[in-house]
Amino acid sequence: MHDLVIRRGTVIDGTGAPRLIADIAIDGGLITAVGGDIGPGRREVAAEGMLVTPGFVDIHTHYDGQATWDSQLAPSSLHGVTTAIFGNCGVGFAPVKPGTSDFLINLMEGIEDIPGTVLAEGVKFDWESFPEYMAALEALPHSIDIGTQVPHTALRFYVMGERGAVHDEAPTEIEIAAMGQLLEEALAAGALGFTTSRTTKHRAKDGRLVPSLSAREPELAGLALAMKRAGRGVLEVNSDFGPGEFETLQEAAALSGRPLSCLLVQVKQHPRLWRETLDWIHGMRASGMDAKAQVSCRGIGVLMGLETTLHPFAGHPAWLELSDLSPDQRYARLAGDAALRRRLIEEPSDDETTRRVHEMLPRTFRLGPDLNYEPDVSANVVAQAKVLGQTVLAFTLEILLSDRGKGMMMHPFENYARGNLDDVREMLTDPATVMGVADAGAHVGIICDASQPTFLLSYWGRDRKEGRLPLETLVRKHAHDTAASYGLTDRGVLSPGKKADLNIIDFDRLSLCPPEVIYDLPTGGKRIMQKARGYRHTFVSGVETLRDDTPTGAMPGRLVR
Question: For the residues 457-483, what does the mean pLDDT come to?
Answer without folding.
Answer: 98
